[in-house]
Amino acid sequence: EFGLRAGTENVASIVGAGKAFELMSGILDERIENACKLQSFLLREIKSKIPSTGIIGPAPGKDRLSNQLNIVFEGVEGEALMLMTNVRGLDCHTGISCVNRHMESNRIPKATGLPDDLFRSSLLLSWHEEHTKADLHGAVEIIAACVGKLREMSPLWNNLQCGRMPSRLSLLPEIVQSSQRLLS
Q1: Alpha carbon of 182 to those of 63, 137, 179: distances in Å?
Q2: For residue 182, with 0-12 CB atoms within 10 Å meaning exposed, 13-18 middle and 19 or more buried, which class applies?
Q3: What does the pLDDT average to over 88-92?
Q4: DSSP string, 21-85
Q5: What percent of the chain has pLDDT above 90?
Q6: Most buried among 26, 77, 108, 168, using CB within 10 Å?
Q7: Above 60 in pLDDT, residue 138?
Q8: Which residues pair with 126 in a beta bridge?
């Protein structure tokens, strides 16, 4: 109770929360629909401009959070990509949202079969209702430039391109199915 005596209710906060819920109830569906459109747009833009990418989790739609995407960029170290994009003004994160502070994948990715190399090649992007398609297009341009630069320096990317190593992106749909089985 933050130093208040037990049983004392914070009436002002309760009334304020009620009013906030009332105001949001009229526009929540519209905001979710807009976030879903932005999500689909962002995924299309990334896939059209950056080869060898995939998403962690289900395709955009009712089975995933509408304001975030976790994209795998094969042949790229996610942490290097995050730092490079951050320097260019794009705030994003690496890995997945369920990770410990030592960047070790936890039991959830392991339980779904997400390989560490794909986990470490991913970038977590999120946005809010004030972002526009133009904002996301700018983000894609930054990401594409950074991925290109990192792939130029990557022996892993070179091995993938020369066929000395198979792509592991085909594992992502299986991981989604595995995740859905865990949740059922």
Answers
A1: 14, 35, 5
A2: exposed
A3: 94
A4: HHHHHTTHHHHHHHHHHHHHHHHHHHHHHSSSEEESSSPSSTTS-TTEEEEEETTS-HHHHHHHH
A5: 44
A6: 77
A7: yes
A8: 68
Helix, strand, or coil here: 88?
Answer: coil
In a domain, 178, yes or no: yes
Examine residue 150 and state whether it is found in any structural domain, yes or no: yes
Measure the CA–CA gap between 144 and 91, rounded to whole angstroms.
Answer: 15
> Residue 93 pairs with which residues in a beta bridge?
124
Report which of residues 166 and 179 the model is more confident about: 166
| pLDDT for the residue numbered 86 | 96
State how far the Cα of 6 lies from the Cα of 181, in Å rounded to an integer.
Answer: 44
Answer for the pair 36, 66: CB distance below 8 angstroms, yes or no. yes
Position 158 in a domain: yes
Q: Which of 92, 98, 146, 162 is catalytic?
A: 98
Token couple for 152: 């130029």
Q: What is the CATH number of the domain that holds 46?
A: 3.90.1150.10
36: annotated active-site residue: no
Whether residue 20 is contained in a domain is answered as no
Count: domains in the chain: 1
